[in-house]
Amino acid sequence: MSDRVLIEGLAVDAVIGVYDWEREIQQRLELDLTLAWDNRTPGHSDRVDDALDYAAVTATVRDWFADNQPELLEAAGEALAALIRDRFGVPGVRLVIRKPGILPGVRNVGVVIERGSLA
């Protein structure tokens, strides 16, 4: 399968970081998700019930950050990849999590987490 569902530019405010000051504020994160999903059925049926629910995936990510305060982007990525695969039956996920403006002169720092099969 080579089909994908994309959710790009998902903005989330989160308590994340290793420094004391980071534990006291919310910081903006930006996420891009690539989800392996067989789009043949919804492509033929034109029924939303056959498609991956983008809004539900987005809400799941936002809810996770509302309920969790990881120190590392890596920990957030691992947890979210597992949650999305389990909850939505997605065989593969690629998450890009960016933390913009955290370092002087650097637009973004971030991680890319790929779990399962995107092929």
UniProtKB/TrEMBL annotation:
Its EC number is 4.1.2.25. GO terms for cellular component: cytoplasm. Keywords: Folate biosynthesis, Isomerase, Lyase. Pfam families: FolB (PF02152). It is an enzyme of class 4 (lyase). GO terms for biological process: folic acid biosynthetic process; tetrahydrofolate biosynthetic process. The keyword Lyase applies. InterPro entries: Dihydroneopterin_aldolase (IPR006156), FolB_dom (IPR006157), GTP-CH-I_C/QueF (IPR043133). It catalyses: 7,8-dihydroneopterin = 7,8-dihydromonapterin; 7,8-dihydroneopterin = 6-hydroxymethyl-7,8-dihydropterin + glycolaldehyde. GO terms for molecular function: dihydroneopterin aldolase activity; isomerase activity. Pathway: Cofactor biosynthesis; tetrahydrofolate biosynthesis; 2-amino-4-hydroxy-6-hydroxymethyl-7,8-dihydropteridine diphosphate from 7,8-dihydroneopterin triphosphate: step 3/4. Residues 5-115 form the Dihydroneopterin aldolase/epimerase domain. Belongs to the DHNA family. Catalyzes the conversion of 7,8-dihydroneopterin to 6-hydroxymethyl-7,8-dihydropterin. NCBIfam families: folB (TIGR00525), folB_dom (TIGR00526). PANTHER family: DIHYDRONEOPTERIN ALDOLASE 1-RELATED (PTHR42844). This is 7,8-dihydroneopterin aldolase. It comes from Tamilnaduibacter salinus. The lineage of its organism: Bacteria, Pseudomonadati, Pseudomonadota, Gammaproteobacteria, Pseudomonadales. The gene is folB.
